[in-house]
Amino acid sequence: MKLHGKILITVMAGTLAACATSPLGRNQFLLMPEDQMSEMGATAYAQIKQDTPVSGDQGQTAYVRCVANAITSTLTDKQAWEVNLFEDNAANAFALPGGKIGVNTGLLKVARNQSQLATVIGHEIGHVQAHHSNERMSLEYATQNGLGLLGAIAGQDTAVKQGIFAALGMGAQYGVALPFSRKHEAEADIIGLQLMAKAGFDPRESINLWVNMAASNGNEPPEFMSTHPSNETRINGLQSKLPEVMPLYNKARAAGRNPSCG
User: Fold this and answer.
1) Contact 3/148 with Cβ under 8 angstroms?
2) How far apart are CA 52 and CA 47, in angstroms?
3) Which DSSP state fits 54?
4) Measuring CA to CA, which residue among 10, 52, 5 is closest to residue 34?
5) Does residue 176 sit in helix, strand or coil?
6) Domain boundaries, the chain
7) Which residues pair with residue 104 across a beta bridge?
8) Is 185 annotated as catalytic?
9) Nearest by Cα to 132 from 86, 78, 93, 94
10) What's the CA angle centered on 184, arms 50 and 85, to 5 degrees?
């Protein structure tokens, strides 16, 4: 049986149980089986490592892995996470289904301490925990009329392959304008705050991180022109959630979670 036929049958079999709930209680419709999402994430990550140099700075790499590992250690899903630092000046990071995390060297110029870096990594892991890529991939699958997505992502560079990378959250790296929606961004912000607080990172530093981001971005476009929230909106949203997550942070510190990543 051809690969796209296998995917089609698997997806059709799963549609009756496709209704799900995000970590924050939002109803979701997820068509793609998680094992296939993980395979796509691993394939995309391998492509990124092929296209973008992995940093040779052992100190910075250890620092990034320390922060990421502190966060992933709090997750109930104990899968192994691969974490790499990439030589890229863009202040960005990403996480993919299947336990793959990438941080760009450019982010370390904006995230000036471990808690600020944890803000970004927690946010990206939040996208994975909330299955945002699966939501987007389900739409991609439907619009491609049953095309073998795994085959497309492993093949030559095509519009379909770029669309898949974008749905996984890799649009910026591959020139495809498909950012996560404001709904997904706001959800990942909240989940990220919870994750970093549970790991013992100070969630108050999330505000400083986005102040730094705003300063580094200069004149950003008006909010109505972007699916991402403006820095001001994002900061206000994070500020409003601090009273909810500070008890998680205090509890983590009292339990001995005191990351010292440098």
Assistant:
1) yes
2) 9
3) B
4) 10
5) coil
6) 3-254
7) 86
8) no
9) 94
10) 30
Cα–Cα distance measured from residue 163 to residue 26, given in angstroms and rounded to the nearest whole number: 25
Beta bridge partners of 21: 27
Predicted local distance difference test score (pLDDT) of residue 77: 87
CA distance 134 to 103: 21
List 82, 87, 124, 232, catalytic entry: 124
Distance CA 6, CA 123 (A): 33
Which tokens belong to 93? 């990071």
Q: What are the residues whose beta carbons fall under 8 Å from the beta carbon of 159, sequence distance 6 or more?
A: none
Which amino acid type is present at position 112?
R
Distance from C-alpha of 84 to C-alpha of 126, rounded to nearest angstrom:
18
**Whole-number Å distance between alpha carbons of 121 and 67:** 8
Least confident of 43-47, 79-83, 134-138, 144-148: 144-148
Query: How many Cα neighbours within 13 Å face the side chain of 152?
Result: 18
- Reported confidence tier of residue 132, pLDDT bands at 50, 70, 90: confident
CB < 8 Å & 24+ apart, contacts of 43-50: 43/150, 43/153, 43/154, 44/96, 44/100, 44/153, 44/164, 44/165, 44/168, 44/170, 45/82, 45/96, 45/98, 45/100, 45/102, 47/165, 48/86, 48/102, 48/170, 48/173, 49/84
**What's the rounded Cα separation, in Å, for the pair 55 and 107?**
13
Per-position b or e across 58-84, b if 16+ CB within 10 A of its CB: eeebebbbbbbbbbbebbeeeeebebb
Query: Taking 60 as the threshold, does the pLDDT of residue 151 lie above it?
Result: no
Pair 126, 139: CB distance under 8 Å = no
- In this predicted structure, what is the pLDDT of residue 40? 86
Q: Which helix (H) or strand (E) holds 100?
A: strand 100-104
